[in-house]
Amino acid sequence: MSAAPTARHAAITSVGHFLPETRLTNGDLEEMVETSDEWIRTRTGIEERRILTDDDKATSYMATEAAQEALDKRGLAPDAVDVIVVATVTPDMLFPATACRVQDNLDASNAWGFDLSAACSGFIYALTTGAQFIESGRAETVLVIGADTMSSIVDYTDRTTCILFGDGAGAVLLEADAEAGLHDAVHHVDGEHGDLLRMEGGGSLHPPTHATVDAHMHYLDQAGRQVFKFAVTRMADVCEEVLERNDLSADDVDYLVPHQANQRIIDATAARMGLASDQVMVNIDRYGNTTAATIPLCLFDWEEELQRGDDLILTAFGGGFTWGAAHLTWAYD
Ligand code: UT7
């Protein structure tokens, strides 16, 4: 009689990060647009963000630094990596993919990879995608990276968006584990509302011309109040969905790891789930909204406190609309 098959979960076994040194504070923004530190803090929770200022560096640089740190902490050489998935809406260029540049920078000679575009939900989408290579046995080591240079697409004359975003990267390593790791993930897309949060220019619909640049179409554009209403309900709904279908209650959750778009959205999601504030990972005050990097940067900051077996709910909402939630158990102390 053959033995029962062993579960093969995709577990996070290391986390790396990169944050540029340059800080853009609310005080700096007060000098750039008509805003105030008080407005930004109370409406968003943000105090400062990091900005990549080196002209010769871009998203692949931050992604590489984060990935290298994750590998070093785990004691793995780059040639151990089988797959690299980079979630980003600010690739170095339309092609080659940022993942190809990361592969070259790391000298990950055995890896293949690709970019994944799901805006602020990018990391959760990439985590689910990367996990499937582990779960199926097609890969032993996967790098999942969330990296965005939002300063490259933000209009610093638009006070409704420029106060929100920052630059950064986070990377996780995925490896097989019989018990801990990703257990479930729910994802949604609603393309009907794509025009509420987008960068319209630069693609095949509106290739870059003088006219598209004059019209500021190469900048991120957001109908903030409308996006807020969707984000606040959809994020809480999808967390409830992942809890229900896994027969989990708030008591089973150790930490909520929410995308960092607005402190008020984070608070509303935590309240709907019945979680205390010390169970919610927050870094929006220090880094703003780093798009695909918010969740892995939170994991990096909380890594010391996490213990094997802790139950985490990750959740995000972003342009597309895209949104989702994942349930995982932490794999290491
Ligand atoms: O990460 C991807 C998903 N994105 C999100 O989840 C973001 C969702 N949206 C938000 O977080 C919020 O809607 C914002 C932070 C973008 C805006 O906050 P709000 O409380 O929704 O403000 P609002 O857009 O309703 O604007 C209120 C007022 C307006 O003035 P009036 O019309 O009431 O006179 C704005 O013009 O605040 C004004 N305002 C500002 N005032 C000072 C807008 N931006 C600023 C600013 N400083 N930076």
Question: Could you name the key traits of this structure?
Answer:
four-stranded mixed sheet, 2 domains, 13 strands, 24% strand, binds oxa(dethia)-CoA, 333 residues, alpha/beta, Peroxisomal Thiolase, Chain A, domain 1
SSE topology sketch:
Layout lengths: L8 E10 L3 E4 H5 L6 H8 L3 E4 L7 H16 L8 E5 L10 H9 L5 E5 L5 H14 L6 E8 L17 E11 L3 E9 L7 E2 L11 H5 L6 E2 L1 H22 L9 E4 L4 H11 L10 H4 L6 H9 L8 E8 L3 E8 L4
Parallel strand pairs: 4-5, 4-6, 11-12
Antiparallel strand pairs: 1-7, 2-3, 6-7, 8-13, 9-10, 12-13
Helix pairs in contact: 3-4, 7-8
Bound molecules: oxa(dethia)-CoA.
Oxa(dethia)-CoA (UT7) binds next to helix 2, helix 7 and strand 12.
Structure description:
By secondary structure, this protein is of the alpha/beta class. The protein folds into two domains: 9-178, 3-Layer(aba) Sandwich (Peroxisomal Thiolase, Chain A, domain 1), CATH 3.40.47.10; 183-329, 3-Layer(aba) Sandwich (Peroxisomal Thiolase, Chain A, domain 1), CATH 3.40.47. 31% of the residues lie in helices and 24% in strands. It contains ten helices and 13 strands. It has helices at residues 26-30, 37-44, 59-74, 98-106, 122-135, 210-214, 224-245, 263-273, 284-287, 294-302, and strands at 9-18, 22-25, 48-51, 83-87, 112-116, 142-149, 167-177, 181-189, 197-198, 221-222, 255-258, 311-318, 322-329. Strand 12 (311-318) and strand 13 (322-329) form a beta hairpin. The radius of gyration is 19 Å and the shape is globular. The mean pLDDT is 97. The protein binds oxa(dethia)-CoA. Residues 35, 39, 43-44, 120, 159-160, 163, 224-225, 227-228, 231, 261-262, 265, 289, 317-318 line the site of oxa(dethia)-CoA.
